[in-house]
Murein DD-endopeptidase MepM and murein hydrolase activator NlpD (Lentimicrobium saccharophilum), 349 residues
Amino acid sequence: MLILQSPGKNKPIICLSPDYNFFLCSMAKVRYHFNTKSLKIEKVKVTFKQRLLRLLSVIATGMVFAAVVLLFAYNFIESPKERILQREIDQYKLQFAILNDRLDKVQAVVSDLQDRDDNIYRVIFESEPIPSSVRKAGFGGTDRYARLEGFRNSDIIINTTRKLDVLTSQLYVQSKSFDEVFELAKRKEELIASIPAIQPVSNTDLRRIGSYFGYRTDPFYKVTKFHEGIDFTAPVGTEIYATGDGTVTGIEYSRSGYGNCIVINHGFGYETLYAHLSKMSVKKGQKVKRGQVIGFVGNTGKSTSPHLHYEVRKGGRAVDPINFFFNDITPEEYAQMIELSQRPSQTLD
């Protein structure tokens, strides 16, 4: 292509194509072209549509370029603000990890308190331990933590919140338990007086126990049956004592079974039964004290000889009475009783 330029400022520039058939003339803002049909140099006319298309083309190209640049920067280049936010997120994660560790330690302390409560405090005060189902009660509602879902770090937040909820529930149960234990402690003196802690008949030489608690031979049917009490042999008319403070809740006169018998409710889940009596000196609803005479040995009901059938019940279940004679016997005598109770024998009723 041949380019010819006229001398002087802002003069036309003439461009000749290699085949000498086309001329392009231009100035600063005006363009010309050689019309091969008319053999004239004509001014190039640009329509509004062409100008608009050029403008739109430039804008579109710029937008595509800007989008590519922004996409690259967004995915591969962190802004200062993003770096600051990422450091904050990392710090939050660290704090949540520390918080979870502290919650685990608090949970261990609460578990120790629960164990002490069930196996020490409540044992001392003769109270039933709190069921595990109550201590570890769950939370209702499947969408309890729905508001915390949908975030990048939802698992950390939900896990921490769940731990806190469980811990709060267990602390509430433990607080109520300690309130109950505190009330039991205030009633300790009453508890000590109510527990059936002596033998129901005078038995200083331990020779009056004819049959112990456990499986024994029935004297009438000659089969092995579980004997839920202790049989004290004694002459008819021997005094019988209440083994702990309480209220007479049962008086029965019968020619079969336990015969004439008395039931005393000592509170705190304890009851005692005195059977085969010849005579009773208390009435239903009467309050009695430990050591008070409540009746006399007899041979009524299903009985082979004069004796007292004595039972201790805890929470409605028969327990071995010899474990409650701690006010009457020495450790050596208790060991002797345990040894004698292991020998096979026949009951007296």
